[in-house]
Structures are given as C-alpha cells and as structure tokens.
C-alpha cells in the first residue's frame, strides 16, 4: 500500500482498521527527511499488511498533542485503533521490520 497522508480531521478514521504505522513529522526536521525514504522502502516490503500514514505536526497539532508527541520523528503503531507502540527518532529499515513482525503473525 502506498503511504497515506492524514490530518487531525481524518486521523481516527485512518488508524481504526488493521495495523497502521503513523509517522509524526515536519518538513524542517532533518531526521524526518532521513526516515522518509526508509518508510517508502518499508511500505514496498509490507504491501497491504500495514498502512503507513504521515501526519505533519505543524499543520495537525491536535493529533500530535493527543498522542503526546514531544519529539519528531515519532512513529506510533496502532492495531485496530489501539496504540501498541511508540518509537522516537529515525530508525533503520531492519529495526522497523522487527517492530512490525510480531504484529503481522
């Protein structure tokens, strides 16, 4: 599945079904720029098994505030609308795959 962009208005709908990895980011954030192509690669590998959603914290402060995002990039993993993991900072592809693996079985 392609990476989707969501906002405060659509956030709850985005995380409601299945496994969703949300990237809280901003365009001025250096580590966010580093992780962006890694998330693209991850998306290509996991296909439809995981939705990867991006939330620009500058434009969508409500979602970031509701989920306690204090640093970016912050990745939050949701399963059927329930938060099951939080990961702060850029991560290598292998680590992101390891984070997802237990939830894909």
UniProtKB/TrEMBL annotation:
The record marks 30-31 as: Contributes to redox potential value. GO terms for cellular component: cytosol. One of its GO terms (molecular function) is protein-disulfide reductase activity. The keyword DNA repair does not apply. The keyword Membrane does not apply. The record marks 23 as: Deprotonates C-terminal active site Cys. Belongs to the thioredoxin family. This is Thioredoxin. The lineage of its organism: Bacteria, Bacillati, Bacillota, Bacilli, Bacillales. The gene is trxA.
């Amino acid at each position: 599945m392609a990476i989707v962009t969501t906002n405060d208005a659509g956030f709850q709908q985005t995380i409601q079904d299945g496994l969703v990895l949300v990237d809280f980011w901003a365009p001025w954030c250096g580590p966010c720029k580093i992780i962006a192509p890694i998330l693209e690669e991850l998306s290509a590998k996991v296909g439809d098994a995981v939705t990867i959603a991006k939330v620009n914290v500058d434009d969508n402060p409500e979602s970031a505030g509701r989920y306690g995002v204090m640093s970016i990039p912050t990745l939050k993993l949701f399963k059927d609308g329930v938060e099951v993991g939080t990961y702060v900072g850029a991560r290598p592809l292998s680590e992101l795959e390891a984070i997802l693996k237990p939830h894909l079985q």
